Amino acid sequence: MSDENPIDDTTHGPPAGTARTQWQEERTTFQRVYDVITGATEYTSAKEIGERADCSTDGARRVLSQLIEMGIVEYQGDRPREYRRNDSYFRWRRVDTLAREHSVSDLREQVDALLEEDQSFQDRFEAPDPNAVSPAVFEHVEHESIHEQWEGLTRWRSVREDLEVLQQAIHRAERDSEGNAKTSASA
C-alpha cells in the first residue's frame, strides 16, 4: 500500500483531538466504522479501518460485512480483503433525498441555474466540457491566475456532476409523483 492515506479526513471520518475522544466514547463500533469507511475512497484494509475506528480488526470486519450487505461498502480481493465506500450508493442516496425533499419545479430551477453556469464555463474556456480544456490555456497565464483557472475547472466538473444528479432526481420525483397519482386515482 502507498504512503498516501486512502481515507480523506477532510470530509468524512473521525474527528481529531478532544472531539475524537468524545466520538470514541459516544459512538458504537458500528457507527465508528461507518464514519471511517465513508471517508475511504481508496481500498483500505480492515486492520487500518479498525485502527481508525478504535476497534479490533475482527470487529471492523463484522461491521464491514453488514455494510457490504447494505450496499454501502464494496470490497476487492480475499487475502487481504480491502474495503472502500460504494460511491454508487451515496449517489443514489443523494438523488433519493433531492427527489423527496424538493419539488420538480425547484429541481428544474436548480438545473437551469447550473446550465447557465455551465455555458459560462464553456465560453470562458472555449471548450464543450472540462475534459476538453487544452493545457495550452495555462501556458501564458500569470502564476496567480493559474489557481483561479484550476478552481474554475474544478467548479465546472462539480457543475456537471450536480447536473447529472439533479436530472436523475427530477426523473425520480416525476416517476414517484406519477405513481402516487395512480395510487390516489385507484383509491
From TrEMBL:
<dbReference type="Pfam" id="PF24033">
    <property type="entry name" value="DUF7342"/>
</dbReference>
<dbReference type="InterPro" id="IPR055766">
    <property type="entry name" value="DUF7342"/>
</dbReference>
<feature type="region of interest" description="Disordered">
    <location>
        <begin position="1"/>
        <end position="25"/>
    </location>
</feature>
<protein>
    <submittedName>
        <fullName>Uncharacterized protein</fullName>
    </submittedName>
</protein>
<dbReference type="InterPro" id="IPR036390">
    <property type="entry name" value="WH_DNA-bd_sf"/>
</dbReference>
